[in-house]
Each structure stands twice: as structure tokens, then as C-alpha cells.
Amino acid sequence: MSFTAEIWKENSALFETIRTMPFNQELADGTLSQERFRHYMIQDAHYLVAFGRALAVAAGKADNSDEVAQFSEAARTAIIVERSLHADFMEQFNVSPATFSATPLSPTTHHYCNYLVATSWSASYPVALAALLPCFWIYAEIGRDILARAAKNNPYDAWIATYAGEEFHAAVRGVIQTVDRVASVASAETRRDMHAAYTHAAKLEWMFWDAAYRLEQWAV
């Protein structure tokens, strides 16, 4: 069994919790409120800046030129391509640039961003990749799952199409292959740390969607 097969099996119950959580259930049937989706998009746009930075740091730690290019391009995509989608959604859902700029990171977004950036700087290359993997892989699988059961004329069709699309899934398969490569030559201790990093980030994926559903704000 490959390393990524191991971590997917180990976290299968967590993935099912994410798949069936209210945010994703209502996104699939098109009943998710615009207020909740706006909260999600604003926070996700903030998050992608940190995700791009973490990917760029991982690229700098890569041990071969192909993977430097792979994660440099992933960083570019996170910041430029996906934020273009956000810009379209923000116009559609009446989020002005001023509103976006004035909206701070929620507590969960702040935690997730800082976890990824700190891990990318302080941890080894394999552990950094394991922490970054859930955002790729879980989104791909959620996108595919939602596409299979989405209501017709879903107001969130563009979001679904992005994460269920072949272009995104091809990039995800590439990241999975790289994680398996580095895990195959890693020590037992490093593989243990990779497991822990993946699981922590996967939990933060659940927290991110849940925070949007709750319209999370700072309590003080």
C-alpha cells in the first residue's frame, strides 16, 4: 500500500464527516445561503495567499528541479488562477473590493494559514508536503462527490466545476505522486510526522467549512 493510500484509509472517517457536513450537503443541493457562501469565499481568498506562500516555501525545499517547478506553479495557481474565480464570485455575490479588504481572517482561517506557513518553513520537505496535501486532495474528492449529486441549475455550479474538473484533478494526482515519492525514501520518524501533519490539516479543512457555515467571527 502506498503512503497516500495509508493516510487516506487512516482518515477515511474524517473525510466522510467532511463530505456529509451541512456546508457541503447544502452546497450540493443548492440551498446553501448566499451569506454563508460569501463568508466562505472571502475567507478562502485570504487563505489562498497563505497557501501560495507555503507552496512557494515548499518549492524552495524541493530536492529536484521538477518539484521546484511543480510547487512554484502550484503557488502561482493558488494566488492567480483561483483568486480569479473568487473575483467572479465576489462580483456575483456583491462583495466589493473594499468589503473584502476590510474583512479580517476569521479565527479558523488565521489558525490554518499560520499552521501551513509555519510548517512549510520549520518542517522538513516531506512533512510540509503532507500538510499541504489535504487542501488539494480533499477539495478534489469533495468536488467530484458534489458534482455527482448536485442539483440542476445549482447557483454554485462554477465552484463545483472548478474542483471536479480534470485540470484540477490532474494537478492533484501529481502532488499525490510526489508525496508518495518522498515518503518512499523517508525514515519511519518522518513518515510518522507526515501522517500527523496530514491529519491535522485535514481537520482544519473541516473546521474551515464549519466556520463558514457558522459565519464565524472573533468573539472579542
TrEMBL record:
The family this protein is said to belong to: Belongs to the TenA family.
Pfam families: TENA_THI-4
Annotated InterPro entries: Haem_Oase-like_multi-hlx, Thiaminase-2/PQQC, Thiaminase_II, Thiamine_Salvage_TenA
GO cellular component, one term: cytosol
Domain Thiaminase-2/PQQC: 22-214
Coiled-coil region: none
Origin: domain of life: Bacteria
Organism: Herminiimonas arsenicoxydans
Example GO biological process: thiamine diphosphate biosynthetic process
Recorded GO MF terms: thiaminase activity
Catalytic activity of the protein: thiamine + H2O = 5-(2-hydroxyethyl)-4-methylthiazole + 4-amino-5-hydroxymethyl-2-methylpyrimidine + H(+); 4-amino-5-aminomethyl-2-methylpyrimidine + H2O = 4-amino-5-hydroxymethyl-2-methylpyrimidine + NH4(+)
EC number(s) given by UniProt: 3.5.99.2
Keyword entries, A-Z: Hydrolase, Thiamine biosynthesis
Keyword Iron: no
PANTHER family noted in UniProt: BIFUNCTIONAL TH2 PROTEIN, SI:CH1073-67J19.1-RELATED
Keyword Ligase: no
Name used for this protein in its record: Aminopyrimidine aminohydrolase
UniProt pathway: Cofactor biosynthesis; thiamine diphosphate biosynthesis
Described function: Catalyzes an amino-pyrimidine hydrolysis reaction at the C5' of the pyrimidine moiety of thiamine compounds, a reaction that is part of a thiamine salvage pathway.
